[in-house]
């Protein structure tokens, strides 16, 4: 299975995501979720998609720390 990551250029519709919930944007009528950088900030533990960037030796440890 292959994964593709991309950074599309888009105009953010700020009126779309009012209230509580995960940050979303609308691109050509389709709802997309906004996530942060794929690299963690210095000193921060990796989370979400950042866990899959590390080598396999750290992968299990990173996931267990997230529990």
Describe the protein in words.
The chain has 67 residues and is mostly loops. Helix content is 15%, strand content 12%. The protein contains 1 helix and 2 strands. The chain has one helix at residues 56-65, and strands spanning 24-27, 30-33. The protein has a two-stranded antiparallel ribbon with strand order 1-2. The chain is elongated and about 40 Å long. The two termini are 26 Å apart. The model has no long low-confidence stretch (mean pLDDT 70).
Question: What is the element string, with H for helices and E for strands?
Answer: EEH
Proportion in helices: 10-25%
> Using only CA atoms, what is the Rg?
15 Å
- Shape, per Cα inertia axes: elongated
Task: Report the sheet-strand fraction.
Answer: 5-15%
GO molecular function: helicase activity
Keywords: ATP-binding, Helicase, Hydrolase, Nucleotide-binding
Protein name: Helicase-like protein
Key traits:
ATP-binding, helicase activity, two-stranded antiparallel sheet, single chain, little secondary structure, elongated
Annotate the secondary structure layout:
Elements: E1 24-27, E2 30-33, H1 56-65
Antiparallel strand pairs: 1-2
Briefly summarize what is shown.
Helix content is 15%, strand content 12%.
